[in-house]
Write a structure and sequence with these properties.
Elements: H1 18-37, H2 42-58, H3 60-71, H4 76-102, E1 105-107, E2 117-124, E3 127-131, H5 139-150, E4 154-158, H6 164-177, E5 183-185, H7 190-197, E6 203-207, H8 210-221, E7 227-230, E8 236-239, H9 245-257, E9 269-273, H10 277-291, H11 307-322, E10 326-329, E11 347-350, E12 367-373, H12 376-384, E13 391-395, H13 399-408, E14 413-416, E15 430-431, E16 437-438, E17 440-441, H14 443-449, E18 451-458, H15 474-484
Parallel strand pairs: 3-4, 3-6, 4-5, 6-7, 8-9, 8-13, 9-12, 11-12, 13-14
Antiparallel strand pairs: 1-2, 2-18, 7-16, 10-11, 15-17
Helix pairs in contact: 2-4, 2-6, 3-4, 3-6, 4-5, 5-14, 9-10
Amino acid sequence: MTLAENLTPSAQPVAASGPAGELRGVLGRMRAAARKSGPPDYDARVEHLDKLERAILEKKHDLAKAVSMDYGNRSKHETLAAEVMIVVNEIKHVRTHLHEWMETEPREVSWMFLPGRAEVVMQPVGVVGIVAPWNYPVQLSLSPLVNALAAGNRVMIKPSELAGDAAEVIKQIVAETFAADHVTVVTGGPDVAEAFTHLPFDHLVFTGSPRLGKLVMKAAAENLVPVTLELGGKSPAIVGEGYSLQQAAQKIMFGKCFNAGQTCVAPDYAILPKGRVDAFVEECRVAVGQMYPRLGQNPDYTTIISDAHYERLQAYIKDARDRGAKIIELNPAKEELDPNSRKMAPVLLLHPKDEMLVMQEEIFGPIMPIFTYEKLDDAIAYVNDHPRPLSLYYFDNNQRRIDRVLRETVSGGVTINDVMLHVAQSDLPFGGAGPSGIGAYHGREGFEAFTKKKPVFYQSRINATAMLRPPYAERIDWVLKMLLGK
């Protein structure tokens, strides 16, 4: 999802002293508290969710201010809408359905084992670890927390140090809302993050880049810890024949400019019908001008998170230009943007090639490569020839073509005729596919991700299992003949 520097490029075991020893102590106290108190019942879980919701709403402006400080400038409206609102809506949805999700599920019993009965019992997995990135530090820390609490677990959270101000507010919210052996926030640099991923959690959630995801999965494997990995990728936006270029440009550029493109589900590149690129470019120019008449002093337009990421994006543009791409900057007021401000004008990149740096990794910035296709087959083939993306966006009013794209491509999620909105639906699972992620959360899938669905069989006092025990004789032959035939 991001290029967050919240882990070191090493998956070697860490020593038991220092951060590792302290974190193991925290985990041990959580396990002891869980054994002592047992799983929380429905009323307790609802109370936990209620308290978290109140705390988030009380601190919503503090969260928005802190995130903006981390970025240099981040629109408060983006934080309130894409972070606070999504988490609060998740709480409301989970609370509405939690009683139903917690219920024991009766299951069928094979006739030969009647009158026994079978059921599936919902049980908390134990202690859940959450490693959150810098780009949406509130949502990606607290949304999985909501699901883990609903499932009755205890939780340790490690926010990214690149969003240090937001991490401190999140830490304050958690400390004022929960006991330290119930939910805790661990802050620190890469050494803390690495030690965190080596802990023997009962489940580990990581949001970050595919490169770091491999290291996290390797670290978790040392203790056979189940993982949910949300890893991002290059999410395509395909425009179908006949779809309004004005509408497509407005929606795609909104997704590319929201949070300055630093969004795991942002449209990474666009694929247009051949012959419509020039018209699309002009519509993109109009769309950006309408949203952001000015960029430099506009509080609605977010800056790039750090100098390193700003330089990375500039290097993408230079490499693409050197390799023959046409660069079109969308700067409505034609401002001179100070690189020190890290405000970066949106850029359209025509004639991209796969060997360009910008096409090697998730862009995570306001750069939009644009491809063309002659037939829809070509666009589908291009997507399928590359790693499966976290999201896919298709714009078309023809249901037959829509169905075809849905059927013939695989991605973590899809929005039709818009971008990113599938993530805001609490009843849809959020997760990747292969290189873009493993597992999912949000809604029921979030509850189940942090729940052990324990199968239980109840034997009846009257049963026929004695027929299946040795010494074997004619009766077992009769049973097997009934079941398997001659």
